[in-house]
Amino acid sequence: MAILRKAQVETFGLLIIIILIVFIAIFIIRLSSLSTDNSSNIKDSIIANNVITSITKVTICQKQQLPSILKACYNHALSCNTDSCQLLSKELSSMLESSGFSKNEYKLTAATKEKELLNIGDCNIKSGNVIASSPYTIYIEGSSAILKMYICR
Fold it and tell me: Residues 95-99: what's their mean pLDDT?
């Protein structure tokens, strides 16, 4: 009788171990599937923020960087003998596309409360899977322009 009882306890212990292993496996599978989606979104967010930071530092023409040309665009002034808004659109589109973005993968916007200064790229920001950069503020004569990049995947 004691041997039979000992066998039942060992079987019950083995059953508990198997159930624990199954729960741990389910937890690991669930956790790994969630982290894959998040890591892709985090990567895209970092890329968008890095692009915004980089383009504000790039010299576009005659030692002028994006903030000064954006101010000229706001004031309808010329930069490098060209309309400032058109110059920004052309140069930034070229930079982004040479960096590997296709037109439908990104949207780059700059706007003040009064008007939109820049809107390039064909990314549909109303679609489901869009990652946005943090807003980058450029101060313009008592106002501020918000520069933002969206990445569509």
Answer: 90
Residue 42 tokens, joined: 């985090």
pLDDT at 24: 85
Q: Which residue has the tokens 């706007």?
A: 111
The H helix count followed by the E strand count for the chain is 3, 9
Residue whose entry in the numeric block shows the structure tokens 């930079």: 95
Three-state SS for 64?
strand
Would you list the DSSP string of 75-133?
TT-EETTEEHHHHHHHHHHHHHHHTT--GGGEEEEEE-SS-EEEEE----TTSSSEEEP
CA distance 145 to 139: 6
- Which position has the higher pLDDT, 127 or 65? 65
Q: How many CB atoms sit inside 10 A of residue 84's CB? A: 23
Are β-strands 78-79 and 136-140 bridged in parallel, bridged antiparallel, or unpaired? unpaired
Nearest CA among 64, 60, 88 for reference residue 74: 88
CA–CA distance, 101 with 1 (Å, rounded to integer): 75
